[in-house]
Design a protein that fits this description.
This protein has 236 residues and is α+β, with helices and mostly antiparallel strands. The chain is built from ten helices and four strands. It has helices at residues 13-25, 44-50, 75-85, 96-111, 114-117, 133-142, 144-164, 175-190, 196-207, 209-221; strands at residues 2-6, 30-33, 60-63, 70-72. The protein has a four-stranded mixed beta sheet, with helices on one face.
């Protein structure tokens, strides 16, 4: 049985990626929520994750069917492992060339777009519960790195949607859509300016059953984690 360790659904974009991927594909797993308190070495979060991941971070996937419990602590590695274990789920595109591009797209997301993503005190941290269009306007006005990241995302998504015909980036749902789901959540929260066809893709990702389930569970958390709230002093 697979066990996926995740952080708060409202804030944890890294956790969202493998959770949406596995859930949308219908791959069974047990969810273990490790709520954020702080990232101090002595925090309950760190104490819990230290026994699961050498980085002490979420997400982490544990396969209990392997002797000694196999632990996988990187989102790309989790996606690749799931694809190997469940080849019938087509987590990557079937076409070889499209599959290579999809992996490149995920790797770019994995390592890049730091202007948009920032960190927990960064420009547009994921915050599903919040509605912050006024912050989005200020960020868009004052942060050229955010504008550059959004321009790249629009360029990337436009090319893929045109080439593969939608509704998802590679036609059918794949790991690439799961990887960009947290970006869609950011676009919803901050209402950054997007062309109509890109806003349409954001709406389609938001409407995916797995994403809707994640959103609803995020809204039920009712946690206000100060370190993840650079723009608010209390929940809405």
């Amino acid at each position: 049985m697979l066990k996926l360790y995740i952080g708060n659904k409202n804030y944890s974009s890294w956790s969202m990626r493998p959770w949406v991927l596995l859930t949308q594909a219908g791959i069974p797993f047990e969810e273990v929520m490790v709520r954020f308190d702080s990232f101090d070495a002595h925090s309950q979060f760190k104490k819990t994750m230290a026994s699961v991941s050498p980085t002490g971070k979420v997400p982490a996937l544990v396969d209990g069917s392997v002797d000694g419990d196999l632990k996988i602590w990187d989102t790309l590695a989790i996606a690749e492992y799931a694809a190997e274990q469940f080849p019938d789920k087509n987590l990557w595109p079937k076409d070889k060339a499209a599959r290579a591009i999809a992996r490149s797209v995920c790797a770019e997301m994995h390592a890049g777009f730091t202007g948009l993503r920032g960190n927990c005190r960064g420009n547009c941290p994921m915050n599903i519960e919040a509605s912050l269009p006024e912050i989005g306007q200020l960020v868009w006005r004052d942060k050229p790195a955010v504008q550059a990241d959004v321009q790249r995302i629009v360029e990337l998504w436009s090319g893929l949607l045109e080439k593969h015909g939608g509704p998802m980036l590679f036609g059918d749902f794949s790991a690439a859509d799961a990887y960009f789901a947290p970006v869609c959540m950011r676009f919803n929260t901050y209402q950054l300016p997007l062309p109509a066809h890109i806003a349409g893709y954001v709406a389609r990702v938001t409407a995916l059953p797995s994403v809707q389930k994640w959103i609803q569970e995020a809204l039920r958390e009712k946690d206000f984690v100060v370190m993840d709230e650079p723009y608010r002093v209390k929940a809405s």
